[in-house]
Amino acid sequence: MGEDFDVPDLNVGGQAVIEGVMMRSPERVSTAVRKADGDIVVKNQEFISLTKRNKILGLLLLRGIISFVEMLVIGIKSLNYSAEVAVNEAERLEGKQEKNSVFKSDTFKNMYFTLTVVFALALGIGIFFFLPLWFSQLSGVKRQALAFNLVAGLFRVTLFILYVWGISRFGEFKKVFQYHGAEHKSIFTYESGRELTLENVREYGTRHPRCGTSFILIVAVFAILVYSVSDTIYYVLTGVPPTLLRRFAIHFCLLPLVAGVGYELLKLSAKTSHNRIVKFLIAPGLWIQRITTQEPSDDQLEVAIVALQNALGIKKPALAPESQSSPSS
Predict the structure, then answer these.
(1) Radius of gyration of the chain (CA)
(2) What mean pLDDT comes out for the span 217-232?
(3) Three-state DSSP class for 29?
(4) How many domains does the chain have?
(5) Does any domain span residue 17?
(6) Order of strands, edge to edge, in the sheet holding 40-46?
């Protein structure tokens, strides 16, 4: 058992990446990746959210929208960094040298990152946003706003569950889900005010109420209500139900509102997770985390601990300094 230590009231979050974990504190983003030779490399980036730098953007609902976009960008950048480490390690082990320096240039990296973000957004909107609307349109309930959005919402949730279940069947994703579990266990330890040691981190569970999985479910359920109201208003004003494309446009424009409210509900649920009603409401998100999180190994826990220590600026890490390297971002 490690000794307890005092921590400030800070919100920390993270994300599993390739052979590693990204952690974010209010002032820093740190991504720790385990190399093939066992060393842990860390990329630190000072980062203060726009919601903290601008009072207007920190207002209720607006902060949720901003935070959602920021985490999306940070998450993709962290994934790209972990992939870059993996590629460099593979080339080193195979004794290969990069022939074309354009792939190492900052211009190419920025272009690649932009295209990755655009592609990820387009794919996500197409599969998880437009496809459910199209399916609901085919069901023949387009004139009933509540029924239409209930069908679309249930289809969206089902599609998401099948998606995470499907990728969990691939062996390559098992490690990612284990690192996801390591991220949650280390955050639980920190939030409990205990020292970030392997002994302490091992004791905690892998399912966390503030996980992005729970956020997606909250957004999907809340969207049913918001989109039902918007479709009803459209019908009252025009006398006809919206077409598929118009419905898509209206729902897409309201997505920031839905995401903003979902963010506030997620924060509220985490603060009141001991309430019986809240426990019932957040249970589905925790159930799905049975798929998206797995019990990690000690090596994976070490990576999560290093990432969180760097994000928090802890100067005396629990792990041996010689097992880490921390290049500047």
Answers:
(1) 21
(2) 90
(3) strand
(4) 1
(5) yes
(6) 13-17, 20-24, 28-34, 40-46, 324-325
Residue 57 is predicted with a pLDDT of: 86
* Buried-state track 219-251, b at ≥16 Cβ within 10 A, e below 16: bbbbbbebbbebbeebeeeeeebbeeeebbeeb
For residue 78, tell me if it sits in a domain. yes
- pTM beyond cutoff 0.85: no
Residue 23 has pLDDT above 60, yes or no: yes
CA gap 49, 40 in Å, rounded:
27
Block residue for tokens 């720790």: 32
Q: Encode pLDDT of 83-106 as tens digits.
A: 888 878 777 767 655 544 444 555
Residue with tokens 């002032």: 27
Q: How far apart are CA 208 and CA 108, in angstroms?
A: 37
CA–CA separation, 207 and 98 (whole Å): 41
The dihedral built from the CA positions of residue 270, 273, 278 and 279, taken in this order, carries a sign that is: positive
Range of the domain at 276: 13-95+106-325
Residue in the structure block whose two tokens are 């959005």 = 149
Q: Do the domain assignments include residue 291? A: yes
* Contact (CB, 8 A) for 31 and 82: yes
| 3 assigned to some structural domain | no
